[in-house]
Amino acid sequence: MPDMDASTLESFVRSALAAQGYRFDEARIKEIILQFSRIAAAAEQLLAVDTGERAGAAAVFRP
Amino acid sequence: MNALEIAASIRNGDTSASEVLEQTLRRVADRASKLNCLTAVTAERARREAKDIDEKRARGESLPPLAGVPYVAKNLFDIEGIATLAGARMNESAPPAVADAFLVKRMSDAGALLVGASSMDENAYGFTCESTYYGPTRNPHDLNRVSGGSSGGSAAAVGGELVPLSLGSDTSGSIRVPASFCGIFGLKPTYGRLSRGGSAPFVDSLDHVGPFARTVADLAVCYEALQGKDPGDHACAQRERDAVGADLKLPEGTRVGILAGWFQDWAGEAALCSLALAAKALAADDTCVWHGAEAARAAAFIITGCEGGALHRPKLLTRYEEFEPASRDRLVAGSLIPAEWFIKAQRVRRQAYEEALKLFERFDLLLAPAAPVPAPLIGTDNLELNGRTVPTRASLGVLTQPISCIGLPACTAPVWPEGAEGMCVGVQLIAAPWREDLCLCGAAELERAGVAIARHAALI
Question: Which residue of chain A is at minimal alpha-carbon distance from B334?
């Protein structure tokens, strides 16, 4: 998890859900935290890739 | 009969479009419910289209290439007069589409007869086509197994011989995985080659559309018919149509490479067997590694979560309970992704694309398995894959996601390896951007060699 341990991740998800107006019960929040942790694992792989500071953000991809 | 045989027999007067259609509707009535592959049958529309074809022929007019050929379209394509479900129960109450999607219009212009809309994973987010609300779409070669998804209904309808052609979409593998499982050919063209106009979006920067067929010749003719510029889709390339070539032969000296690394680490035994059979038939013995594949898959994962989550967030806030339980929490989680991760994913995507292009300095065509395993049994939550236990729904696209992340064209060809309990594990034929012709010609070589074939399905 990039820059976050498990408790920070959980806090982030809870705060982000609340900030975006989602209202879920505890069981649902736990499931969303699990799903988000899988996304975070993928993000960790990405953040480890050196793309260079001047790499464009490629806002719309074109092959 | 395959699509070209049907079109030829109508052109020659051996049969009529109306006769072909009525036979097709009888087959649909007999088989569609066994497979649970259609969500609507558009018989009256198809009868009108068939009548038009027969009247054209009676007047002595020349007939278009797919005249009288029945097909179905994934239910995310707009079909005038019926609600576009995109696999979602909540869309049943949506107003009927007021016009056909661009590709449906292209099929009409080519003379094809639309006989129905096909089932799919909700919002195209899934690889198994197991809907909590509509039930699973079943594999025509073993009704206890999944069809694959998300274009499962379109693949099952062609694999189950209801129709010779169908349309699907592919964001991360949703044409190539079900084609592999259902034992047919499927083409995911270059990103931007075919218009998505009038189809429900999922991940705009990853969404592709394309055809399924039982032969490469059918697939090629359908693909040619679908091409065309569409200002209604911002991603649709302003290119003239590229013909595939009637003989479907690879140019002399075509260099075929085998993708190793990620594409073999994540392939099961049967998938590796399919790959070996295809490589032998194409005289490919040189391997290469695309080092960016793993990162491309991770980038696709983040981009999918972010774009898909953002698209559906308004309804997730108000109608969460109506979403598919198997995917709604992934969508919510995706809507929380920090901007930094999304921007990084886009940068990695660009870098991975540039790395992949270098492979085409050595090779013209690349081979990889289309799925890590044969179609799993319905309800399989986890897979054992080379000593790893992985979640089924997330892992079936592990070999297709990196390719669609960077928009390369790829054709799935159906190969039937030993040790797959009579099931298919397809191979992907992957080319540089805009070289769908090479993908199709490579698949045709496999078909001529008897390595890739759409087998008859018993529906048991």
Answer: A36
| Known active-site residue B151 | no
Q: How many CA atoms lie within 13 A of B208 on its CB side?
A: 33
Its ipTM equals: 0.91
Inter-chain residue contact A36 with B408, CB threshold 8 Å: no
Q: Where are the alpha helices (DSSP H) in B140-197?
A: 152-159, 176-182
Question: A11-30, pLDDT tens digit by residue?
Answer: 999 999 999 999 999 999 99
Binary contact (A61, B350; C-beta < 8 A)? yes
C-alpha closest to that of B120 among B146, B142, B82: B146
The residues, any chain, with a CB within 8 Å of residue B384's CB and separated by 6 or more, are: none
pLDDT on residue A3: 65
Pairing label, strands B113-118, B70-74: parallel
The residue to which tokens 């070999």 are assigned: B399
Q: Which residue type does B85 have?
A: L
Average pLDDT of chain B is 97
Check the CA dihedral B120-B123-B124-B128 and report its sign.
Answer: negative
CA A62/CA B46 separation, integer angstroms? 37
**The predicted structure's pLDDT at residue A52:** 76
| List B174, B195, B199, B274, catalytic entry | B174
Query: Smallest Cα–Cα separation from B308: which of B337, B272, B277, B288?
Result: B337
- Residue B74 backbone dihedrals phi, psi, to 5 degrees: -50, 140
Structure token pair of residue B385: 């894959």
A interface toward B at CB cutoff 8 Å?
A: 2, 12-13, 16-17, 20-22, 24, 28, 31-32, 34-36, 38-39, 42-43, 45-47, 49, 51, 55-63
Rounded distance between C-alpha atoms, residue B82 and residue B92, angstroms: 9
Q: Do A45 and B305 make contact, defined as CB atoms within 8 angstroms?
A: no
pLDDT of residue B401: 98
Query: Residues 6 or more apart from B84 whose CB is under 8 A from it?
Result: B75, B76, B77, B78, B91, B94, B97, B200
pTM score over 0.95: yes
- Give the residue among B242, B239, B141 at the shortest CA–CA distance from B457: B141
pLDDT tens digits along B70-79? 999 999 999 9
Q: Which residue, B180, B153, B181, is CA-closest to B167? A: B153
User: Measured in whole angstroms, how far is the alpha carbon of residue B84 from the centre of its chain?
Assistant: 18
Q: Check if B74 is active-site.
A: yes
Among B313, B345, B350, select the one facing A46 at the smallest CB separation.
B345
Shortest distance between the Cα of A6 and any Cα of chain B, in A, equals 15
